[in-house]
Amino acid sequence: MEESAELGRTIARKLNLAVGPVAVFIPLRGFSAYGVPGAPLHDAEADAALIRELEDSLRSDVEVVEIATDINDPEFGRAMANRLDDLHRSWEAAASSA
Q: Looking at CB atoms within 10 Å, which of 4, 14, 52, 58 has the fewest?
């Protein structure tokens, strides 16, 4: 569980270095195919530690999006792609008006 907590802090440190808008997506039902409920590496407590440390260590302006799917669910991928598109469009609009 401590390794998961440290991973959350490490991810947050890296995201906190971003100079532009940033969003982090968290799949609440598993970070891998082997980590979903019922799979051999599922560890709800370790996942919760990672998420808690990640959220607690992020800058306040980092957008956190929690989605009740696993990381391999197409819904999760679509949500990330749509947000990336939104961020890119807002960046392009700001760059063209500067």
A: 14
Split at pLDDT 50, 70, 90, the class of 97 is confident
- In the Cβ-directed half-sphere of 89, how many Cα atoms lie within 13 Å? 6
Rounded to whole angstroms, the maximal C-alpha distance in the chain is: 52
Q: State the pTM of this model.
A: 0.90
How many helices and strands in the chain, by DSSP H and E? 3, 2
CA distance 56 to 64: 11
d(CA 41, CA 37): 9
pLDDT band at 44 (very low <50, low <70, confident <90, very high): very high
Instruction: Report whether 9 contacts 48 (CB < 8 A).
Output: no
> Whose CA is closest to 58, among 3, 10, 26, 91?
10
